[in-house]
Amino acid sequence: MFVQQLINGLTVGGVYALIALGYTMVYGILELINFAHGEIYMLGAYLGIIFLGFFTAIGLTSYSLPLALILTFVLSIIFCSSYGFTIEKIAYKPLRNAPRLSPLISAIGVSIFLQNYVMLTQGATDKVFPHLFEEAGFEASSIRVTYIQLFIIAISAFLMLFLHLFITKTRMGKAMRAVAQDKVMASLVGINIDTVISVTFAIGSGLAAVAGLMVAIYYGLVNYSIGYIAGIKAFTAAVLGGIGSIPGAMFGGIFLGLVESLSAAYISSEYKDAYAFIILIIILLIKPSGLFGKSHDEKV
Amino acid sequence: MVMKRPVALLLIFLFSALIFSGCQKKEDVIKIGVAGPMTGDQAKMGTDFKNGVALAVEEWNAKGGVLGKKIVILIEDDQHDPKQAVSIANKIVNSGAAGVIGHFNSSCSIPASDVYNRGGIPMITPASTNPQLTEKGHKGVFRVCGRDDQQGKVGAEFVINKVKLKKIAVIHDKTTYGQGLADEFKKFVEKDVDVVYYGGIIQGDKDFKTVLTSIKQKKPELIYFGGIYPEAGLLVRQAKELGINAPFMSGDGTIDPKFIEIAGPKAAEGTYLTFSPDAKKIPTAKKFVEDYEKKFGELGPYSIYAYDAANIMFTALKESEKDLDTKLSERYNEYAKKNNRPVEKLTKDEKDNIYKILLHEITIEKLHSMEFDGALGKIKFDEKGDVTTAPYVVWITKNGKFEEFWKP
Question: Which of B130, B246, B355, B368 has a beta carbon 3.0–4.6 Å from B180's, enabling a disulfide?
């Protein structure tokens, strides 16, 4: 039972971590909490349904399911990254030198807009994601793991590793770290800040798209409001790990998933949503900068 | 003080606008409120309500309406949110509606019924099954569906007498309806069956694997769920994914094709639920089913209830006419006496108000005393406003469709 709950928690935690990364990367660079990020995750799930429906209609799914799935993932990532890129250009860039509250309010506006946009175009009712691998999995000493769960855990781990290597090993990653440390200095040594910010938004949105699509496959049910609660949870995860810190977001997400799963199993399932926030309050009281965050002097 | 002319003109303009808006024209129609979840994940139920009532209204208007007036419906959306339900209930009362058909969720019907009661207008719900609704003692609250204590009892009898199980798990979604139903079921089943797990989940959540893992540990032979179809579908699906093979049972909140779609046809196969008998098999409902399907397509589970609720309301209104005529002048006199004015001096607004209150009173009286011929058969309300006969049966999911399965 404990191992089973651990696997349940890891699956959800992996998804939280992927979304949390988007929050933390944007915060690290712009010190902006991108409240529209949860909606990108929701868009990823919807785009997945649309693209997969299209591939099924043209017969690609029955020809080769893996190929159809890979294409669905790639297209969702491209679309969501473009959404992220565009949102930054429209809603945040013009406010870059405005007081810090303005882009925050702009972010909430984008979030409301996207929710309603999806509700109006796709309808307010639940959308069902096609059942692809029904009940497929394996069982060992009464622990049952479905392939989708394994898939989610593996993809999350792979993407986190990929992101880590990208940030630490590539030129772009170095530029991102430089911009996060000091924007003015970074621009003085020849880093194009606009490009770095755009890339950050695109990567964060791409990760959210993967998270959304995986959740759609896992639960099989999507509606226009799923981004809100997922966004809040992922934001909690990012704050838990120390907002701005990439390993912090990864740890925070997985930790949150495990806490939810284990406390729901051993304390009470009725208050599952509350545990995450109780942990958040405790962490903020003890270590306000988060588990992995560095406390620094307030810039403003 | 001398005001500058433009300012003075502006003030006159602004105030006159308010005066004009205060005396808008009163239309001579009978308004009926239809309240339910018109948007959101339960929008389908709201649409079924709307269609059922619309069909009844069309038939009545073709015959000339009631009380010499045409009937119009006032569709309001409660978004299955109790707060929203109260706000639209106020809106319906203030609009001067003659009655309300609604709401869907018990958690909405119960707080809204307080508002309708205060406004004195009759309310008939086609679907809210929580006992509390009619136990509050509101005189004008009725329902054409059954009650959860009746429903829970039939579910319990099925488990004890038909499938003969000994160990079951009970979950609910913490809503008034879900928990109410689960509690009633548990109460009846507990005498003969071991309830090995009892707990709640969160409505709107998508991940129930933790609860189901805990349940799997207890090895129940059946899982009973009190709640609505999105969560029920996910529960069935995730239970199968965890390798739980115990059958699943729920109440009338699950009877929706979306349930099978969400759970997946394979996982949904063989799930039980309690609901009233199949409308398509009721002889009196034949004409309704034909007309409805011609107009709106597939019959929803609550369409027939909404249709009957509307018909009952209109019949009661129609029957009120005679009493209304005899009592109206009496009421005018009473009112005039109380205010020390002759009857001729009463304003039109005062008269309208007296008429409205009297109409509500008589309608409620008629609803209590009459017996109605509905598509569902004969319907009579008891003194609480519940139907005197509420047959529940057990349905099963077979080949991706709901089917009547067992009668107690």
Answer: B130
State residue B98 phi and psi, 5-degree precision.
Answer: -85, -15
Query: A118 CB contacts (<8 Å, ≥6 apart)?
Result: A39, A42, A43, A46, A224
Q: How many residues does chain B have?
A: 408
Separation CA B62–CA B56 (nearest Å): 10
Q: How far is B36 from chain A (nearest CA, A)?
A: 15
- Please check whether residue B41 touches A, CB under 8 A: yes
For residue B209, how many other CB atoms are within 10 A of its CB? 30
Q: Which ipTM did the prediction report?
A: 0.85
Domain range for A55: 14-232
Number of domains in chain A: 1
- Tell me the β-bridge partners of A183: none
* Per-residue pLDDT tens digits for B110-143: 999 999 999 999 999 999 999 999 999 999 999 9
Considering the domain boundaries, does residue A177 fall inside one? yes
> For A149, which residue in chain B has the nearest alpha carbon?
B241
CB contact under 8 A, A219 and B234: yes
Q: Given CB atoms, is B389 within the 8 Å cutoff of chain A?
A: no
B165: left (phi over 0), alpha (psi -120 to 50) or beta: beta
- A269 interaction partners in chain B (CB closer than 8 Å): 199-201, 210-211, 214
Q: Is it true that the peptide bond before A131 is cis, omega within 30 degrees of 0?
A: no
Asked if the structure places residue A260 within a domain, the reply is no
Residue A244 DSSP one-character state: T
SS3 B166: coil
Q: Are B46 and B38 in contact (CB under 8 A)?
A: yes
pLDDT per residue as tens digits for the range A207-256: 999 999 999 999 988 988 899 989 999 999 999 999 888 999 999 999 99
- Do the domain assignments include residue A288? no
